[in-house]
Design goal:
Blueprint lengths: L14 E7 L17 E6 L10 E5 L2 E4 L2 E2 L2 E2 L8 H14 L7 E4 L21 H4 L8 H26 L7 E4 L29 H4 L4 E4 L18 H8 L16 H6 L7 E7 L4 E6 L2 E5 L44 H16 L8 H8 L33 E4 L15 H15 L29
Parallel strand pairs: 1-2, 1-7
Antiparallel strand pairs: 2-5, 3-4, 5-6, 8-9, 10-11, 11-12, 12-13
Helix pairs in contact: 1-3
């Protein structure tokens, strides 16, 4: 269970253009006509694919072309790097745009996501003209990754130049953000870095849930600074809708907060708590209220609970977990070797923990409010650098969330070294009750089993809708 970010507002007259990665059944990435506006799509539907031939591997033997302009397959883009393709398409959209009308350009680049993870495939891809910019990076995977980032940087710059040339930049709001922490140390075949934060993408540690980004606009009252206010990805919809002139009463059934004034004026964020996730299948959850973060259960049997230094740190293994120097491995979501019998047994203990505090319709407001009201010890104008200091010898053992809930004060311990659960059982109880309250509103899992009829080999080696 995650907060709802969906848009249930009334139609709003604008041109909505979606370029890049997309999911067919989710807004605003799908393709349809809206009253008062034209929606255009250029990109792919699945979660990952090759950057050059644009074919996607979902699981063994399910492999095919996944590249479209609106509903039509694009078959003549083989060999063209997707980061450049999406930037070129965005520039074209801007150049041809009627500036008397608003434009929402949703541009989720493929970069720097992993490509296909099958045998003999390359999970990291970038043309040599980008990779060659970084001869000083010794590790090959990190060097390719840097090339991918550099290509993305050029692409964003080209889009910004196009906005300026068209005379649209001064009236634009540019938001660059991410949907998760980096897949470090070979996770998903990738070599991002969350150092010195703990964990990787798809874990509930800060390295998995904390993202970076920037917001640019002449509408910002106090620009040119580092913002540390709490923001959840669901907050962007109401915030951008508000500053674009939308009527906030139009938005319904949305868990987002309007954080525009907080970011613009450098004031306190209305975001006081964040439900990171509740996974009823794998039995793990995390919740932050104020500065306190509760973690229950473990992802991947604890295999990705470490702190992973970038590979260019000479003399250090990039898989750092206490005194353990395990070899990195490529993890594939659809076939997870980490979920062995021991992790399943541990998850049973997590179910017991979740049931230990019966759900109450009334989580004591005074108990929650004292957590929210705790002073934020994070200076707002410090550089965007996290320094955690030496890792304690017991950092890998003092928290075993598959057995007991763990509690961290993120404001003073962003690297999640010091588990406070034993010394603050009252706070653990309150947060567990809050998790129960969220869980009571969850809808049933809607995942469906694999349908062999959807295999691209039955559809001209392309991913297409197959259910009429």
């Amino acid at each position: 269970m995650k907060p709802s970010c969906r848009n249930t507002s009334k139609s709003w007259a604008t041109q909505l253009t979606s370029l890049g990665s997309g999911i067919w059944d989710s807004l605003p990435r799908n393709i349809h006509q809206r009253s008062g506006g034209l929606t255009v799509f250029f990109g792919y539907w699945l979660g990952a694919e090759d950057y050059l031939d644009h074919k996607a591997l979902a699981q063994p033997d399910y492999y095919g072309l996944d590249f479209r302009r609106n509903m039509e397959l694009v078959t003549n883009a083989t060999g063209q790097y997707s980061t450049e393709l999406f930037a070129e398409e965005a520039v074209k959209v801007i150049q041809e745009h009627d500036t008397s009308k608003p434009l929402l350009l949703y541009l989720p680049y493929q970069a720097v996501h992993s490509a296909n993870l099958g045998p003999g495939m390359k999970p990291l891809e970038a043309p040599n003209k980008y990779v060659s910019r970084f001869p000083y990076i010794q590790d090959k995977n990190r060097r390719i990754f840097a090339g991918m980032v550099s290509a993305l940087d050029d692409a964003v710059g080209n889009v910004t130049k196009a906005l300026n040339s068209k005379g649209m930049l001064s009236e634009s709001i540019i938001l660059f953000t991410t949907d998760n922490g980096g897949p470090a140390a070979g996770f998903d075949g990738n070599y991002a870095s969350n150092w010195p934060l703990r964990g990787v993408k798809a874990t509930l540690w800060e390295g998995g849930v904390r993202g970076t980004g920037f917001l640019w606009s002449h509408l910002l009252a106090k620009p040119g600074r580092i913002a540390t206010q709490s923001v959840h990805i669901c907050d962007w919809l109401p915030s951008l809708y508000y500053i674009s002139g939308g009527n906030m009463s139009d938005l319904q059934e949305n868990d987002g907060k309007n954080v525009w004034d907080a970011l613009s004026q450098d004031s306190e964020s209305p975001r006081k708590e964040t439900l990171h996730n509740i996974d009823p299948k794998e039995h793990h959850a995390a919740l932050r209220v104020g500065n306190l973060k509760l973690i229950v259960g473990d992802n991947y049997g604890g295999k990705w609970d470490g702190w992973y230094k970038p590979e260019e740190f000479s003399g250090e293994s990039h898989y750092v977990k206490g005194d353990q120097n395990d070899s990195p491995e490529i993890h594939v979501h659809s076939n997870n070797p980490a979920l062995d019998s021991s992790s399943v047994q541990s998850n049973g203990a997590v179910q017991h923990m979740m049931q230990a505090f019966p759900y109450s319709k009334h989580v004591f407001k005074s108990e929650i409010s004292h957590l929210v009201a705790m002073p934020n010890n994070t200076p707002r104008y410090k550089p965007a650098i996290i320094t955690c200091g030496p890792r304690p010898a017991n950092a890998t053992t003092n928290c075993q969330p598959s057995k007991e809930p763990c509690l961290f004060d993120i404001s003073v311990d962003p690297c999640e070294y010091d588990n406070l659960a034993a010394s603050r059982p009252g706070d653990v109880k309150v947060l567990m009750m809050r998790l129960q309250q969220y869980n009571a509103t969850a809808v049933p899992i809607r995942n469906k089993p694999v349908d062999p009829a959807g295999n691209p080999k039955y559809h001209g080696d392309a991913w297409v809708p197959w259910i009429k």
